[in-house]
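Researcher: We're teaching a course module on how sequence relates to structure. For the next exercise, students receive a sequence and then see the predicted structure as tokens, so they can try to spot secondary structure elements on their own. Here is the exercise chain.
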Amino acid sequence: MTEPATLEIEGLEATVEGKPILRGIDLVVKQGETHALMGPNGSGKSTLANVLMGRPGYRLTAGRVLFKGEDIAKLTADQRAQRGLFLAMQYPVEIPGVSVVNFLRTAYQAVKGEQISALAFRKHMKGQMDRLGIEDAMVQRYVNQGFSGGEKKKNEILQMAVLEPEIAVLDETDSGLDIDSMKAVAGGVAQLIGPDLGILLITHYQRILNYITPDFVHVMIDGRIVKSGGKELAHELEEKGYEGVRKELGLGEPDAAA
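Model: And here is the predicted structure for the students to work with:
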């Protein structure tokens, strides 16, 4: 039996523009598990996502990140994607002149390291579109150009479905969405959850967890994971708020992180 792909974060510290943001993160996410990482604005959640995917400007200063036993610190973002990592961005960018279908086929070939005919790719993509309830019209449009917030996030989830990563980091997928769009996007994520996909879901709010049930919940404050538990921890946060957790743990005044 094949061992599940595992993302191991050990003592991770990182800076942005010379400013310390992450101050010692320890976390293990395995294929088939869903982890929710929750925290207030400025706690370092998005910084962690960017460090994991190797975004330029985010400097790892201590600790290490292992994926399937390999230290990935020196790998480029595309090399990490080829290994089976995926990042759904908080703010997806527009790519004028490039259709979603052409973008996805190019990304698929780059990640998988193999050529695929237009017909074979269309069949693969259509299967995922049907699974997620995405209309043909969306994939004919230019990537994110003129898309609503909900459409941009749906497109990110379609990318995840098509590329079939082993571990996916979803950076505030619910950010800026109205309740209907959030339910649709969360429903898409829930459709993909299974033994072949591990998820690190980064969010401010408990509301998306009404539709995606995490196996584990972690609370990040001031660049550290200060508390972990099961799904009930998200409801505790809803009642206490992050300031309640701060007081409970005697963490003092908030720092200005990113």
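Model: If you want an answer key for the exercise: The mean pLDDT is 93. The first strand starts at residue 6 and ends at 16.
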